[in-house]
Amino acid sequence: MKNEILKHLSKYIPITEELEEELSKIEFIKFFTKGTILLEEGKISNECFFIIKGCIRSFYNKDGEEKTTEFYSEEQAVVPSAYGNKIPSKYYLECIEDTIAGVGTPELETEIYQKFPQIESLNRALGEVIMAKYQDTFAEFKMTSPEERYLALLKNRPDLIQRVPQHQIASYLGIKPESLSRIRKRIMK
Amino acid sequence: MKNEILKHLSKYIPITEELEEELSKIEFIKFFTKGTILLEEGKISNECFFIIKGCIRSFYNKDGEEKTTEFYSEEQAVVPSAYGNKIPSKYYLECIEDTIAGVGTPELETEIYQKFPQIESLNRALGEVIMAKYQDTFAEFKMTSPEERYLALLKNRPDLIQRVPQHQIASYLGIKPESLSRIRKRIMK
DNA sequence: TGTCTTTCTTAACTTAAGTCAACGAATTAG
DNA sequence: CTAATTCGTTGACTTAAGTTAAGAAAGACA
């Protein structure tokens, strides 16, 4: 399982034997069953996740209704916006499948960064890329209709349609389940 | 004018005389007239901006229509998503008022970071905060109606309503100018 | 100053999403 | 395996945004 993380890292930086050994010493791979709440609204976040297998969603509670805002799956990092800060989280994180993930803490990060500064640089660079991608996703959302957004999702993350309940997809697209149902009917003409 | 930048920095880190002197040596404050295009779609971005006075907007060109996605004003940093990368920009940056701004380049940044590492740490920390704020803004956008979004804008950035043409606000809210006009009529009952 | 352009509003009409309610299908739990 | 819950679809109706077009108001410019 740790191989998955090394495999991912190796796309960006050379894996030295020392690094491999160091990472294998740390016990930070965890298993979560479907339905596990990883973070609750109002709680302080002290863990970030790197998904090896499975799927995690973030959702807000708006007047008793769950509003799904993101889905994270294999090879994606989940860094709560309040991670490391002492700010209470505004949203929940839930495993919507049995999930295997690497779990990071601020302390562990500091330790690794000290030993392997190249990982800190990498994380910073990846952070910038993610930020740019995020801006773009937001702009795209503003510029398109719910139907266009659904078609884009079908194209870009077809796996999600299979593994995630439709009412969560609807909420992710900013619409009600009934509307998504009608959109689906409309487009398969 | 450079005082403005020092004033801003001083909120976060102590300003040493050395730092003050160093920053004052650098000629990086520039003046742009209303209408100046700072970045064009397809162009590589090599400048970021810190607004001292004025207002900048980012917009995409979607099938010939301008879609405004963000407004930046006093004390805000404008970092194009393609800044420093060699990726062509997907959007435009335009001064919508006469604007005075500090202009940064990757080279200048590297230089300053080497001399004052605390500024690099600060920028990283601020980057994380901005990222978290951004996530929250997106979630909020998904969860609210155009009318609620307009009311929130009135509350959070009342100055924008005065200084920005309404059709740009409309596009920023994800709707057409006619709809914004009707929303305005609706809410002042 | 007066003309041209941009901006904002209004109206009539179309389109699609929200709401409420009902029902069958699928999934989960005991 | 059955009962209970969750999930997805459909229909009738409401509400609000998109579209098209026209005209008034405000700004820019020469």
Topology:
The structure is a homodimer of 189-residue chains.
Chain A (H helix, E strand, L loop, with lengths): L1 H8 L7 H9 L3 E4 L4 E3 L8 E6 L1 E8 L2 E9 L3 E2 L13 E4 L3 E6 L1 H10 L1 H27 L2 H11 L1 H6 L2 H7 L4 H11 L2
Antiparallel strand pairs in A: 1-8, 2-7, 3-6, 3-8, 4-5, 4-7
Helix pairs in contact in A: 3-4, 7-8
Chain A binds a DNA duplex (30 and 30 nucleotides) through α8.
Uncertain segments of chain A: none
The CATH superfamily label of the domain at 2-114 in chain A reads Jelly Rolls
Would you state the CATH class of the domain at 2-114 in chain A? Mainly Beta
Strand order of the largest sheet of chain A: 1-8-3-6
| Oligomerization | homodimer
Content of β-strand of chain A: 15-25%
What does this structure look like?
- Two copies of one chain form a homodimer.
- By secondary structure, chain A is an alpha+beta fold.
- Chain A has a domain at 2-114: Sandwich (Jelly Rolls), CATH 2.60.120.10.
- In chain A, 47% of the residues lie in helices and 22% in strands.
- Chain A has helices spanning 2-9, 17-25, 106-115, 117-143, 146-156, 158-163, 166-172, 177-187, and strands spanning 29-32, 37-39, 48-53, 55-62, 65-73, 77-78, 92-95, 99-104.
- In chain A, the strands form two sheets. Chain A has a four-stranded antiparallel sheet with strand order 1-8-3-6. Chain A has a four-stranded antiparallel sheet with strand order 2-7-4-5.
- The longest helix of chain A is centred in the last third of the chain and has 27 residues, at 117-143.
- Chain A starts with a helix and ends with a helix.
- Chains A and B meet through α4 of A and α4 of B.
- The first copy, chain A, binds a DNA duplex (30 and 30 nucleotides) through residues 145-147, 165-167, 175-186.
